[in-house]
Amino acid sequence: RTHWAPPFPSAGNMDAAMLEGVEWDSESEDGDAGGAGAGGGPKKDNGNRQVNDLGSMMSKIGAESDFAWTTEHILLCRLISLYGKCATKPGGNESWIRSTPLNVLIYECIAAGVLDFDYAPTLTDVSYLGETKKVWLNLSQEAATSIDELRMNGLVRAVRMYTVDYKSVTAFQVSDIGLKMLKVVPNALFDELKHIVYVPDKNNTYSDKLQISWDVDNEVFSLRSGKTGYTRPSTVTDIEDVSYVCSPFIPKFLRRGVEDATDNRKRATEAAAGRSNIADAEMMEAIALGEVRLMMIEWVPFGENNIVTMAQNLGVMDRTKKGMFSEKVDKKPCDTILKIPAGLTQVRVLDFDMMHFVNVEAEICYP
Predict the structure, then answer these.
(1) Which string of b and e fits 162-190 if b means at least 16 CB within 10 Å?
(2) What is the pLDDT of residues 331-349, one digit of tens each?
(3) How far apart are alpha carbons 306 and 328 in whole angstroms?
(4) Which of 83, 104, 152, 256 has the most CB atoms lying inside 10 A of its own CB?
(5) Up-side HSE of residue 353: CA atoms within 13 Å toward CB?
């Protein structure tokens, strides 16, 4: 959506400070071209006001900009303002919404059709009680870009902080100019947004705002009420998977042994037989590639002692140079039975130099 054309509110419903000095185009008003009539103030425009009119009105409140505003910008600004806004007077309270809960709310709005954005799985740091975990979340890059544009135009502010384990965290709030802008936008534009942010009730009172929390046991985000006990899990962690088959690849100049890496070409048909859980039934994407080699490289400044320790942990000196590995920490190593979830990683050592390198291939094994 590139244009926004909702009906504007009547003069009685708008802040007087917002109306002061605002000129209205007679071409978009009803009736004769002789002005607003005896009552004064703007007339209705039957929803024909374009979004760029908002930019001209914002210049009247100190936010002069020729930026092409869209409906998504306005909805995002409103969503942030429900949780984070600046103080309007000295000694007033300020609030901020952290980026991760905001991303969860943005996803919920996209899933409900309120925001016209796309999302994609992104590996994200989730910090909880001093411990950070990598979690796949459905995040929208388009929404992140829109938030940056709101910041560049002075409608949204950001603050950076650090967690107890030194992970960077960003929080957002709507500035005073952003709050003024929201006052000139019809409340009807935010009706669908309210159904996402507030706890549903029979009378639609919109009085119980949802809070985002991390369920560490089930590793999901929950939308909950602090008043009634209402709670429901978010599907932001439900990643849409696409079946594929690939083979491990290490360039020859990095190899020292003669044993080849596993070739999975014979398993390519398994991708076609796999299931898909893509939620967008209308999405049709086809990519044809041939003989593709993908290398992901990261510089890790290890010394020789670190390499030796890593090689020993991988079992390079064992007779059988492959085995299963798990990320779980064994907190009861003296107990008889060990129970861990399915999905272990099988690692096979290809070749190594005890003090300089280890070449391995890995495969995640599911039953």
Answers:
(1) eeeeeeeeebbbbbbbbbbbbebbeeebb
(2) 888 999 998 888 889 999 9
(3) 21
(4) 104
(5) 7
